[in-house]
Amino acid sequence: MARLPYLNKEDLPPEHQSILDRPINLNRILANSPECRQATSGTGKYIRFGSKLDPRLRELAILQVGYLARAPYEWSHHIKIAHEFNISDDDIRDLVAMNEGKPTKFDRNTHAVLTAAHEMTVDGAISAATFESLRSFLDSALLIDLVVTISHYNGVVRLLASLGVDVEDSYLPYLEKFPLPATPATAR
Q1: 188 by DSSP, 3-state: which?
Q2: Which option is the CATH number for 53-177: 1.20.1290.10, 3.90.180.10, 1.20.1250.20, 1.25.60.10?
Q3: pLDDT tens digit string along 7-52?
């Protein structure tokens, strides 16, 4: 349950109403501080629309963060987004399987990205071995983009949990299809 009110466009002065052009609950709760929402939206927009990182790898990394953090809002929203970037239900099942220590069909590069997201989320940093694996197929700019993406979404999941942001009804089917386990995953 949300700890602050969800605002609507009409609750905001005209100069801030555009932050609710996409009236998802995350934006609606952050509208309680419109200047903060506008300032923090830049990183998310860069990750989604400016980064040259393969969108499939980006979305799998974000899903990994949402899964490990047991963040229903992030997990459900990014399952929907992941489907837009040709991530299949089998890919999502493989992500879950990887976290359960089971074999997957992921290639070496995808496995490295998911391991990096796991290490940053669970351990706080990417290990030297995983970083070297990433360097074998990502240049410096893409490495920065990946690390910033994982860092950003680690912040988002903590924000969602701290503010008690509710999953919108339209996203609940994603949680029903891919429920989050109650206990944290430890496998890599």
Answers
A1: coil
A2: 1.20.1290.10
A3: 999 999 999 999 999 999 999 999 999 999 998 899 999 999 999 9
